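Subject: Interface between my chains keeps coming out wrong

I've been trying for a while to get a sensible model of this assembly. When I model each chain on its own everything looks fine, but I need the whole thing in one frame so I can look at the contacts. Pasting all components below, labels as-is. Any help appreciated, I'm running out of ideas.
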Amino acid sequence: MDDMQIIDLYFDRDEQAIKETDVKYGKLCFCIADNILSNDEDSEECVNDTYFSLWNSIPPTRPNNFVAYICQIVRNLSLKKLSFNLAMKRTPNMIVSFSELEEILPDDHIDPNIGDEGIGKLISDFLSKEKEDSRNVFIRKYYFFDSIRDIAKRYSFTESKVKNMLFHTRNRLRKYLKEEGIEV
Amino acid sequence: MKIPRLAIAMGYIDSGLVSQAIEFKPIPRNKITHLGRYTMAVAACLSIIIGFYTVHSYFKQYAMVKNIYVQENYNNSVDRCEVTAIQGGKLGAANNMHLSISAHNYDWYGSCYYDMETDLIMIGLTENTEAHQKQVLKDEQKQTPAILADTPVQFYTCEYSYQHLEDIYSSLESRDFILKTIGVERYYISITDNRVVVYLTNADCYAAIYAIDKLDNSNGAVIYKSIASQPSSDK
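Reply #2:
Try treating it as a single job with all components included. I did that and got this:
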C-alpha cells in the first residue's frame, strides 16, 4: 500500500491505517527509537506513541512526505524519552553522536534568539550544498543515529571512510554556522 | 547530560533530505561476485598473454622485414687454430697499429687486423682513397715503423667506420641493464668483421633485436649471434 492510501485510511478514521503503517514503517521506527534509547521496551513504547500521535495529527495534517513525517515524530518522542531517562538517571549506554554534535557548536555558544527550527533550516541549507554521499551519511548518523558500522554496511563504504566523511562534514558545518552568525 | 540543541535542531531538517537518506542506494562497490573476480582475473591474464604475443609477433615481423637473422653459435671450437709465435707477434703488432690509427679519430678508418692466411696486415677504410692510404702509412711510419717494415699492408674498403662502431657500442653499454633483461648476453666490436657482434641468449629475443636495430638506425652494422646450446642431435 502506498503512503497516500495509508494517509487516506487515517482520514477515514480506519484503524487499518495503523496496521499498514506498522507493516511498512514499523521496523524503521523501532530502529530510530532503539538507536536513541538503546532499550527495546522504551523503543517499543515510543513506536506505539508515534502511531498514537499519527492517529491524532492526521487529520487535519496531510503530510507531503509521510515517511519523513513519521521519522520526525518517532525521533522527537525518542529524544524526549531519552531526556526523561537522563533526568531520572536511567541512562542507557551513552550515545557518542551527541558529544560530536556538541563539538560542532556547544549550546552556550548558540545565539538564544534563534530557535531550533531556524537552526534546522540552516543545517538543511548547508546539507543541500553537500555531496549526496556526505549528506546522506551525515543524516544517517545525526538524524537516525545509526552506528558507523551500520552506515558503512548500508552504503558499502569502509568504516574509516564513513568516519572521515563525518569528520569533514562536521568541520564544514561548524564553519558554515559560524559564518551564518549562529555563534554568540 | 543534556541533549544538545544541534541534535534537536537536526529534527527540523528538510523532510526531502530525510527521505533521500532513506532511499539513497549508492552503486555497490564490494558486490563484485566471486565469479566476477575470477572472470576479471582470467581476462587480465589473457590480456597480458595476448599483449605479450602481439608485441613478440610485432618484433619478430620487424626482424623478418629487415632481413635480420641470428647466427647460431654452435661451432666456436672450429674457429680455434694453432698460432705460431711469429703470428702471435704480428697479431699483437696489428692490434697496436689499430690502436694507433683509431687514436686519430679518422671518420673513414674502419679496421686493422693481421690476416694469418695471407700473412698481411689488413687495413679497412670506408673511403679507400690513395690520400687516406698515404695518410695512414705516414702516421704509422712515425708510430710503428718496425711493424710496417716486417709485414706488408693491404688496404681494403670496409662498410663502417670504427667511430660508428664505437658509437653503437657506447649506446649498448649505456643501456646494458635493459638489454640484459631482454636477452642480450654480451657484445663487442669485431675488427675482422667490421661489425658490432651481439650475443643473444637465444634466437627468439626479438625485443633485443628490435631495440639494438633502432640504436643502429637499421644500418646493418650489428651481427646477432645466439649462445643457445647446441641441439642434442648435433652433439
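Reply #3:
Confirming on my end. Chain B touches chain A through 28 residues (CB under 8 Å).
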